[in-house]
Amino acid sequence: KKYMTIDGIPVEINGEKNILEVIRKAGISLPTFCYYSELSIYGACRMCMVENKRGSLDAACSTPPKEGMEIWTNTERLRKYRKMILELLLADHCRDCTTCGNSGKCRLQELAMRFNIEDVRFPNGAKTPRRDESSLCITRDHNRCILCGDCVRMCNEIQQVGAIDFARRGAKMTISTVFDIPISESCCVGCGQCAAVCPTGAIMVKNDCDKVWKALDEKDTRVSVQIAPAVRVALGKELGIGDGENAMGRIVAALRRMGFNEVFDTSTGADLTVLEESAEFIARLGEGEHRMPLFTSCCPAWVSYAEKNEPEVVENLSTCHSPMQMFASVIKEHHRHSSRKHVHVAVMPCTAKKGEAAREEFRGAGGPNVDYVITTQELIQMIKESGLVFSELEPEAVDMPFGTMSGAGVIFGVTGGVAEAVLRRIISNKSPAALQSIAFRGVRGSEGIKEAAVKYGEREIKIAVVSGLGNAREIIRRIKDGERYDFVEVMACPGGCVCGAGQPFVLREGRESRAHGLYSADRMSSIKRSEENPLMLSLYSGVLKGRVHDLLHVRYSA
Ligand code: HC1
Ligand code: SF4
Question: pLDDT of 125-168, one tens digit each?
Fold first, then answer.
């Protein structure tokens, strides 16, 4: 065993890449702006400096631990140093905390409080406000940027989209799109992962709460809402329950108290997607190798990525609407002849869904099928604004007649869930043991690329499950190099929708409890397979009769 000494206490070194991880393991919350274990080390913010026994300073994030090393994390010199960094950052910052959408979640604000910054000794040199509101998914404000580079590394290393980068030098340095064009005109796909890691309010999720309140305030308007699978397991930390705990019943109760007239579960739409996508998959298998693989298309950031960067795969995208859009088509059709105005809202873990809702393909005669998308974070804000004490709400069920869903629809929210749901549908053995064996074929788990093989008749179906757009790029490279897959599930956010950028941010460890929350919801569900959802039959013989293609399918083109 190897040990180093932190503030006079020996701490074991156990494979940690840097002393920051050893220090945090020892229970000391060393401050950082630019360190994420999943991103490369940038070492720019210098907040994690520690003093070594020779009296010099090292950045903990970029110093590997060594046997016998002695460091101090909280000396007079370090406290002064950290305060100075914070003051310099604040000197160049707009400091409009009370009206900033990130107030209460901002790390600069948190550390300024923690280090008791009561005054800034330097003149305020904040840049003139320069906002980019062009995207439907994210907003950017250069005035709040501290140049930590977290967004740049997320977009370039994990998502491999490359929409933003550092530009200019010295005091003029900024984060920019190519030629500083509006972000909506860049190759950005709206995944929002840059906003998820931004420690300040420089990149935030677009906020549409006011539009939803306005609809709720209109006297004669029917406002219906659907709740995505992943939302139910992510409200925890912010609303006083455990992260990963299934809060669906309480969310339904909260939405009703806010004034929503009808409350539904997107998992019902997911059951429709499973039925349509399984049929499409089997039909394509019959058409031969050249039609494979089938790529899922329920993740809008992935669809946008394929359209912008991988046009050759676009014709292999499933023609199925996403569950959100399938459900919206059904509910809008259901109320089409009513004289009452109908506004449909979707609560999603995802920022890119705001862009999906606005696509031409998903407009009906009276406008978009989903009028507004709000993220989990916006839902939390609306619950807080309502004054509802979430943890004290009594859980309620969603509304009929669209109120049944299967466990297969619920697990859509975690990476591998779509593939598992489709397998449940197509495999002929419907025994509980077969269900179990699908779960252990390799589709579960938080790895970015998973592979599974399943027998279908005489044929072996090869499946890839991918989360994170960088991994999607890797799978496409493998396919171009001759690797054969039949079905590829892609979710743009690492871990799937449970880690969507619209959710309260969690580090890698948090993903497990959210995934676990959805798998237990599936276990508790009395309907396990989409085709066993009794609602499906009545939809196909009712609202969808003769309209399946029109209401549930779309042709994407590059
Ligand atoms: Fe998702 Fe989906 S699972 S895309 O991740 O297919 O956002 O939760 O709602 O539409 O069901 C997101 C989640 C969500 C759709 C479904
Ligand atoms: Fe990059 Fe996604 Fe942010 Fe767009 S939303 S800049 S693609 S990380």
Answer: 777 778 999 999 999 999 999 999 999 999 999 999 999 999 99
Query: What is the rounded distance in angstroms from the CA atom of residue 471 to the CA atom of residue 135?
Result: 24
Active-site annotation holds for 361: yes
Pairing between strand 262-265 and 222-227?
parallel
Helix axes 107-114, 76-91, angle to 10 degrees: 140
- Rounded distance, CA 15 to CA 161, Å? 31
Pick the catalytic residue: 45, 94, 320, 497? 497
Give distance in angstroms: CA of 177 to centre of ligand 2: 10
The yes-or-no answer on residue 318 being catalytic is: yes
19-22-23-27 Cα dihedral, nearest 10 degrees? 170
Q: Is 4 left (phi over 0), alpha (psi -120 to 50) or beta?
A: beta
By DSSP bridging, strand 2-6 and strand 70-72 are: parallel
Looking at the CA of 139, which ligand is closest?
2
Question: What does residue 420 show for φ and ψ, rounded to 5 degrees?
Answer: -65, -40
Position 446 scores a pLDDT of 84
pLDDT digits (tens, 9 = 90+) for 188-247: 999 999 999 999 999 999 999 999 999 999 999 999 999 999 999 999 878 988 889 999
- pTM recorded for the entire structure: 0.94
Amino acid at 184: S
User: 475 with 166: CB under 8 angstroms?
Assistant: no
Q: What are residue 544's phi and psi, to 5 degrees? A: -90, -5
More confident call, 315 vs 507: 315
CB neighbourhood size of 521 (10 A)? 19
Q: Which residues pair with 49 in a beta bridge?
A: 59
ipTM: 0.94
Among 151, 298, 299, 499, the one annotated catalytic: 298
Cα-to-centroid distance, 197 and ligand 2 (Å): 11
Question: For 446-469, what is each residue's pLDDT tens digit?
Answer: 889 999 998 888 888 999 999 999
